[in-house]
Here is the input.
Amino acid sequence: MPRQPLVQFQVDYLQILDENGRVDAALEPSLPQATLLQIHRCMTLARLLDRRMHILQQQGRMGTFPSCYGQEAAGLGCVLALRPDDWLVPAYRETSALFYRGLPMKNVLLFWMGLEEGNYWSPQLRVLSIPILIGSQTLHAVGIALACQIRGSDEVTMVFFGDGATSEGDFHEACNLAGVYQAPVVFVCINNQYAISVPRCLQSHSETLAQKAIAYGFPGIVVDGNDVLACYVAAQEAVQRARRGQGPTLIECLTYRLGPHTTADDPRRYRSEQERLQWEAKDPLKRWRIYLEQRGLWSESQQLELERELLAEIDAAVRQAEYDLAHADPLEMFDFVYAELPPDLAAQRREAAEHVAQTDTVSASARR
Ligand SMILES: Cc1ncc(C[n+]2csc(CCOP(=O)(O)OP(=O)(O)O)c2C)c(N)n1
Here is the structure.
């Protein structure tokens, strides 16, 4: 018996808007003008807020936070393909996509200032809270997708995670379960080339991360993650497949984290400036602006006006978030994990309560 190839697979790569802002007209999707402008607004807001949050963190007014600088296109492009009643399960760098979906800026600020209230937004948005555990949200997403399937609704769930998450057991369990039950879920891997200091080449020996889907019985595709249009087209195909009952898809968005992993990280210790500059040239915002300008939808003066407006919105949101923070009860940090506090945490709570009482007395006497 001769040996024969038994399984062959294909993983496509999709780019529609290249780094110079040139568009492939044959592949260009038709999006309403208002949406094109809204995309620009959300990406610009995410970038400006990222910069402001960095300053707030340096000033000690915010905890450490993960930057989304350079990754503004991928999540947003994919989320464009969702209906308002679909489910969005983000990781922690999908700021622009969260804004597109209607999440208030104050929530993002409060979340990274360490307030539980950061996670309180309208359930009607159908956006899950920001996870810190790597990969865990992939399982939550499959759970939601299976629930929708069992209820007979045609809602789709889209979940985001990084390249590092593809090395976690949770990701593989999620893919396996989703494949077996043909769950209506879209897995979106934001491959920003690094998991903190671990480069993509040490994450997996697979040529692409998208091909991991093949092993679980569903398709995978690689897209230019700095190209909103490519992300949208790939996501739309995946969402439609899921809605038709044809199961999951894995989309790998190739992008780059232009900033540090978090404000506690110094990327110069593990990657070269030359590499960063190569990716800076592929900046998703620059090419989107060229695209809008070429379509006659944008100008320098509109850009200046937009930035002025967004900076004022950011100022107002920061003021509001800091007000909420100043009026928050720090002891609440013990309240939401355990129904009954374990003895070590109960001791910490008592200590914290004493500290808060002392600080209150000191600041009250300082005010007198
Ligand atoms: C289960 C788990 N293990 C380890 C960590 C610590 N950690 C925080 S971020 C990170 C890297 C994640 O990389 P990736 O999934 O590529 O996402 P990125 O931060 O690049 O967006 C790790 C290991 C964690 N938060 N959760």
Remarks:
- The longest strand covers residues 185-191.
- The first helix runs from residue 33 to 58.
